[in-house]
Amino acid sequence: AEVEQLSAEALTLGRIADDSPQAIREKRARYSTLQEEAGRNRTACNLWTAAFFQRVGSEGAGSGGHPLAPFITTDTLRRHLESGTAHPQAVAQAQALAVEHRFFHWPLEFPEVFAQGGFDVVLGNPPWEQIQLQEQEFFAPRAPEIANAPNTAARRRRIHELPHTNPELYRQYQDALHAAESTSRFLRGSGQYPLTGRGRINTYSVFAERMRRLLRPGGRAGVIVPTGIATDDTNKHFFADLVEHGALVSLYDFENREGIFPHVHRSYKFSLLTIQRRSESTRQGAERAHFAFFCTRAEHLRDSRRVFPLLPADIARINPNTRTLPVFRTRQDAELTRAIYERVPVLVNERTGENPWGISFRQGLFHLTNDLRKRNIFDGSVVAVRSGNSLLSLYEAKLIWQFDHRFATYLLNSDERTTKDPHEFPAAKKLLSSAVIVGRYYVSPDVLTARISWEYQRDWFLVYRDVARSTDERTVISAIIPRRGVAYT
């Protein structure tokens, strides 16, 4: 009701002409009255928000020179709303924090908009930054000797000395640290960002969620964000909610290879994301969203081979566990993958517990550092192998490529030990089925058998590289290898 009253007064103010000095004076007077009437609500909003930004415990007295003000609690807010008797210092502290951190209360700033349910259109290009304070980034322009410390421990020692060597810089550091921590506290605990206020929070994610919440039913938002909004694990809850509620209109992914953003790295990926707030009458219906990936210029969006639709059911079928977005280069790739998943289930559906293939996952069979220390695997045991020992070579990810179990091999040096780095396996030798790789490490058959904790009788493994670059043509690099030791990568 108060928002509607503010809305009506704001609309009246907007209708007053400003074509004469008298009209301008009248408009100014009404604006002042409106601000006074909104002041009580603004103070209440500031008190509520300031509770997340006030200094607590060691952040208070003696920390950065900020004395402790009366602690802002739910009772402080209740007293203000019911009788206007909140502690004056608590109110003053809230107002100061509102200025320092630039609190922005959308319904108070745009009462006439929120009386109608929100905005018709919201457009933005939010910052792409981590909320967590980056020490090296903070000190680089202020104290390069701290930023360039040889390691984290050395940098922390120099920071610890700042109260004695440079108190002003230490105060600035404490203020920046508090701002980052309190912002994180607000994003995680306020309830305003239930989908993106978790994990390693990035500003672009919370901006996208806020823009969605600002829309009226039927409204749309367009935002430029990193493609991770749809593919990163930290954003999976937000993206899944967009899909499940039919809020996703389109996502067009670009690589910055041609310098669309001159000051962003050329390999960086970003997307044009369009979302909508569906009305109650249309919320349940399935709606296709449109996608394109690996675009480098705007003209690519006119290419029907690149742009393709996906239903929410398609995304749920292909990525049922994370509900993140599958990435395809072409419409044909998307249609082929969709057809495959319509006929063949995923390996393991973590939501339903279905495991039709009887698959179990583990991170390799051996951990190089730990197993070397425990002598479960052996380094440079070629001599032992040549003398008749039956040790088996251990595969590392760098030794395979797509469908190729002999992509690379180590070489023997003069003292019959393996080289530091692998070399390409000779093409001529690949014609010989008896030609095998030389490993850097070896394992006994008995230890290998003991590591296979399930009944597995075949003489081969299906393996894949744990890491691939996002710009690789093949982001899943796999091969079938002989029954040998397998490293964790």
What can you tell me about this protein's structure?
- With 489 residues, the protein is α+β, with helices and mostly antiparallel strands.
- It has 3 domains: 2-116, no CATH class; 214-360, no CATH class; 368-486, no CATH class.
- 38% of the residues lie in helices and 14% in strands.
- The protein has 19 helices and 14 strands.
- The strands form 4 sheets. A 6-stranded mixed beta sheet has the order 1-2-4-3-5-6. Strands 7-11-8-14 form a 4-stranded mixed beta sheet. A two-stranded antiparallel sheet has the order 9-10.
- The two termini are 60 Å apart.
Distance between the termini: 60 Å
How large a portion of the residues is in β-strands, by DSSP E?
Answer: 5-15%
- Can you give the helix content as a percent range? 25-40%
Unreliable segments (pLDDT under 50, ≥5 consecutive)?
60-66, 381-387
Query: What is the count of distinct domains?
Result: 3
Q: How much is the average pLDDT?
A: 86
Shape: globular
Biggest sheet, spatial arrangement of strands? 1-2-4-3-5-6
Query: How many helical elements?
Result: 19
**Rg, please?**
30 Å
The SS-based structural class is alpha+beta
- Largest beta-sheet details: 6 strands, mixed
Give the tally of β-strands: 14
